[in-house]
Write a structure and sequence with these properties.
With 506 residues, the chain is α/β, with parallel strands linked by helices. The protein has 2 domains: 132 residues, Rossmann fold (3-Layer(aba) Sandwich); 240 residues, Rossmann fold (3-Layer(aba) Sandwich). The chain contains 19 helices and 13 strands. The strands form 2 sheets. A 7-stranded mixed beta sheet has the order 3-2-1-4-5-6-13, with helices on both faces. The chain has a 6-stranded parallel beta sheet with strand order 9-8-7-10-11-12, with helices on both faces. Helix 1 links the parallel strand 1 and strand 2. The radius of gyration is 23 Å and the shape is globular. The two termini are 22 Å apart.
């Protein structure tokens, strides 16, 4: 029987090449949900992949003041064991980060109702075996993933491992699943501390390269801005909930205001933050997570207010320790945080605000413990033989030296336990071997940058209509990469099916 595979697609999505590979190399029926505005013209015209059927999310979810059906939403929550308000609060559009529009309770709930009904109808019609989707970061894609999880539909998410240029395909971005229990990961080569640090270093260079190249052209910014102004002037564009409140005047005003705030905030950071480690202090290191970002909002929704987390950590420290809080260097892309945010940190008597320019390695090497909501710094801590504490599930939280906060009231105990925890390199080597054997070499950022450079004005504007011949040429030029991604997905599909068969006959 043919596999039925449902794809979540967006304009220029790397998953288009994966769908093309599977259509040519696997006996399957392909379906797709497309989430794009201008870009839907490409999907309507393309003949690259023969989808059995394609649905367009944004044609089925419109902004309106219509009263939501609370009875339906309540039954939906019970049916799928999904808390809808948790999902809503993790969406940047419904949160404090939205500079253009404040949604009412009814608007949020009716939007969720439309999305839920739409996905239920699609899944009832297709009854897919697999959902192939990118890492979720908004309520729509997150809801689709959660519904599929509840319905026991296998989910394949392409994500990074935080190890060099390696990626994995898992049911969720923040877990490493489908590990072969028959493999003894202890028997593989053990690396020294220096070799382990070097193994991870590739990820840092990858991220640096991405930040340096992404949105680096002023000419593309001007072109994208002119295109965007034309786009938001279209009444059809305004119908989708995430576009609410965006007018040309308001966009220009907020952009100018943001640039002025950015200068003022940077001046404040430079004046009030520490640029070095005090050798006379014992300290715990807290790296601020980037906001808004899915790594904070989705895997740790109840700890997304980092100010509250910092206060709770500060009040849980032993009296002879202080807390070093470092700003994320990439936060400058969002214009830094408000001055009042930094002032809240500065008010705490046993907390020091650290300048974003201070290297993370120096802080980790000199601290006694790393505490983070979720972040790569906790993983780096393990590689530098330092324990850490996290507040959400991450791919490396299985390490014995990474303690997971389950109850906030236990934080003082967990911190003291963390301060007394030693990192065992054998555990770290086992974990690295496990990741290496369950991942593949692939530079995700490089492909994304290629797509952004070719179609999206260097990453400034994604809502564009791509001519079909241009995409065909791009897929051909990057065939080697897409064949790799497609073959890895096919390998994963076969692995999942074999495991299911083993369970049936065991």
């Amino acid at each position: 029987m043919k596999d039925k595979i449902l794809f979540w697609l967006e304009t220029g999505s790397p998953h288009l090449g994966i769908a093309k590979y599977l259509s040519e190399n696997h006996d399957c029926d392909l379906f797709s949900i497309v989430s794009t505005n201008s870009g839907k013209e490409f999907f309507k015209k393309q003949n690259i992949i023969k989808f059995i059927k394609t649905w367009y999310l944004r044609d089925n979810v419109i902004k309106t003041n219509k009263k939501p059906d609370l009875q339906y939403l309540s039954s939906f929550e019970k049916k799928y064991q999904i808390n809808l308000w948790t999902v809503a609060y993790s969406d940047v559009i419904f949160s404090k980060y939205n500079k253009f529009y404040n949604f009412t309770e009814n608007e949020i709930l009716y939007t969720l109702e439309q999305i839920c009904r739409f996905f239920e109808n699609v899944l009832d019609e297709t009854n897919p075996d697999f959902l192939i989707i990118r890492p979720t970061d908004a309520c729509a894609d997150q809801l689709l993933q959660l519904i599929c999880k509840s319905k026991k539909i296998e989910i394949l998410t392409l994500g990074f491992t935080r190890f060099g240029y390696r990626s994995s395909i898992t049911s969720e971005l923040d877990v490493l699943d489908k590990i072969d229990p028959s493999v003894d990961y202890n028997k593989y080569p053990n690396r020294t501390k220096e070799e382990l640090i070097n193994f991870m270093a590739g990820y840092d260079s990858q991220q640096y390269s991405f930040r340096k190249r992404f949105q680096g052209s002023k000419m593309n910014w001007i072109k994208a801005s002119l295109r965007y102004f034309k786009l938001i002037s279209n009444s059809e564009y305004q119908k989708y909930y995430s576009h609410s409140g965006r007018t040309v005047f308001r966009v220009i005003f907020i952009e100018m205001l943001s640039k002025m705030k950015k200068i003022y905030r940077k001046h404040f950071i430079d004046k009030h933050s520490h640029r070095d480690v005090d050798s006379g202090e014992k300290f715990v290191y807290f790296p601020l997570g980037l906001e808004p970002e899915r790594t904070i909002l989705v895997p740790a929704p109840f700890y997304s207010n980092q100010i509250d987390v910092i206060k709770n950590v500060a009040k849980s420290l032993p009296v002879d320790y202080v807390l070093y809080v470092k700003e994320h260097p990439t936060q400058k892309v969002w214009g830094w945080r408000s001055v009042s945010y930094y002032e809240e940190i500065l008010k705490l008597p046993n907390v020091r605000l650290i300048h974003p320019s201070l290297p993370t390695g120096k802080l980790v090497d000199n601290c006694s413990l790393v505490v983070a909501v979720i972040g790569t710094s906790s993983l780096e801590a393990a590689f530098r033989e330092k324990p850490s504490i996290v507040f959400g599930d991450v791919i490396f939280s299985s390490l014995p030296s990474v303690l997971r906060v389950q109850k906030l009231e236990d934080l003082p105990k967990i911190i003291r336990a963390g301060l007394n925890t030693k990192v065992n390199l054998a555990d770290l080597n086992k974990f690295v071997n496990m990741v290496e054997k369950n991942s593949f070499e692939y530079d995700d950022n490089d492909l994304i940058l290629k797509i952004c450079d070719r179609f999206f004005y260097n990453g400034y504007l994604y809502d564009v209509n791509i001519p079909v011949p241009d995409m065909e040429l791009f897929l051909e030029e990057n065939k080697k990469i897409y064949d790799l991604l497609g073959s890895e997905h096919l390998k994963k599909i076969k692995q999942v099916k074999n495991q299911k068969m083993d369970q049936v006959y065991s």
